[in-house]
Structure formats: structure tokens, C-alpha cells
Amino acid sequence: GTGTGTGTGTGTGTGTGTGTGMTSACPSAPPSSGDPCTLDGQPGFTVAQCTWGDDPRPECRVQGLCDGTMWVITEPSAPACNDDPLAGCDPTAPDPGTVCADTALDCWYAGGRHCWCSDCQGGSPYPICQTIDPPEWACSSPAAGCPEVVPQAGTSCSDEGLSCGPDCELQVLCEGGFWVWQVGNCPRCAAPDTPIATPRGDVPIAELRVGDLVYSVEEDGFVVVPIAQVGSTPVVEHRVMRVRLESGVVLEVSAAHPTADGRTFADLQVGGSLDGQRILESELVPYRHARTHDILPASKTGSYLAGGALIGSTLR
Fold first, then answer.
1. Residue 179 DSSP class
2. How do strand 304-306 and strand 114-120 relate by DSSP bridges?
């Protein structure tokens, strides 16, 4: 969750919140959804946050949010959470770059070592998957100073500013003396129906191809240039910023996607503006599609018009 200020949260236990979506003490066990909780903090402090469980996979833990009225509890939803973190895996961690056969393998070893079989070069699909055949193992370990297992949201920490998320999907930050879980900054781009300005009118971004003409910006203003590159990334349980502009256009774009003025969509707030258009709504919402999309116009800026607003490209 996001927000600033100081508040208190109570469920089956009590807690105090400080900073961005954080609690200093969580109930020892998950409360039930609907159990009362309170936040008496400054305006803008929106949620207290806790997690429970000893699974090394963050997505396989119980998560709880207190919005100032009641607890909202989310149980692990991934079917894979019913399996052991090493189900189907070799007992010892493989060497990165060695060939593997099953891209469904996702192995969590003792000591925080995490290895997965990937058909994307380097093991990451971001900002775009460079496909390899055969797939290869990719591995990661906790950053220096981080605990072996991803720490629970709401528990104490001492190294202010330390980031211990397992990947770009999830940021786990030490802020104000406590661990905070935040949505990560994977550069995942835009929804397939995002309207892109072209000389033939607005076209959904998913329908554009390399060589198609779009509007971009050079030093002297708007220009018509061909698309140099297109990208599409598969996503699972992704969330995006849903931004409604005063023109009525609604954009659903990943939080880390750049704007044309050096910000990201995560920075866009109600009352602010995007390319001169006032922002009427801005919230993080579940994503409804299986893939995200991006384009790179062949211009010096790499920017393009989405719903009439100039934004940047993750492919630049």
C-alpha cells in the first residue's frame, strides 16, 4: 500500500503505522477479513500492512491490509503454493546459464538462493524477453545485508533504505525501522487497447508493428516517424496505474513506465497533470490482460502519444 503519515492499526492484535503502508507490530496470526481496525494518522496514510507465513515465496504468504475500518486478508492464490518450494527441483542449486528443460521450474533453496528455468536471455522478460532456445537456468541470491528469507511486512529492520525484494516484481524496503512491501517497478508497459496517435488516427498499441508510422517529438515539435521496435511482455497477477485524464481518456500503464518529462506513472497524483492534462483519478489496480505492450518510435526522444498524452518508452 502507499501513503504517508502516522497511524495505528488493530485487528486480532494492535499495531502502529509509520511511513508508507507500514506497521510496527502486526497481530501474531492473521485476523479475519472484516475484523475492525483503525488508522488515526495524518491525511494520506491509507493502509497498514502485514504478512504472515514462513514460505520463502512472497506470493505464498498471507497478506493483510488495514484501511482504517477493517482488515482485508488475502490468502495465497497461486496453485503452486500447495507444492514444496523445491518441488521438481534438483536438491542442489544449478549453475546459472546451464541448460534446463521445464520453464515451469521455480526453485527456492536454503540460504535464499532462488533459481528458475527461463526461455528469456538473462532470465528476465523485462523490458522485453529476448527468447533463447533451449532455456537456461537463472539464479539470484539476497543482496548484501538482507536476510536469507524475504522479511515479513511490518517487522522491524535497522538498515534504513535497504532494499531486499526478490526481483522487480516486489520491493521490500526498510523504512522508518520497519519492512515495507511495495509493488515493484518492472518496466511492463501499457494495456493492449491503449490508443496511440498515428497519421491514420488512434490505433490500439497491440495492433502496431515495426515500420508503422506514429507521432513522436523532436527538437522542433511533433514529427511522424516509423516504429523501430515493439515489445510485449507476459504478466501474471500484475497491477497497473489506472489514470483518468480531464479529456476523459483512461490509461492503464505499469507503475514504472516513464512519462515524457522524466517521471513514472507511479508518480502521477490526482490534481497533478500528465502532458498538460489534469489528472482526475490515479490508482493502482489489478491488470485485466495477459500481456503488456510498448513501442519505440524512431525519434531522438522515443516518446509517443497515448490517449493524447505524450509518454516515454521502456524500450528506449
1. E
2. unpaired
> Which residues are registered as beta bridge partners of 252?
242
Dihedral angle, C-alpha 120, 121, 126, 130, nearest 10 °: -80
Q: Cell for 313?
A: 518508452
pLDDT at 194 over 90: yes
Which sign does the torsion angle of CA 175, 181, 187, 189 carry? negative
Cell numbers that stand for 87 in this block: 518441488
Question: Model-level pTM greater than 0.85?
Answer: no
Q: How far apart are CA 1 and CA 166, in angstroms?
A: 18
Asked if 131 and 108 touch (Cβ cutoff 8 Å), the reply is no
Residue 190 in grid coordinates: 501499457
And the C-alpha cell for 191? 494495456
Residue 66 bridge partners (DSSP): 48, 71
Number of H helices, E strands in the chain: 0, 21
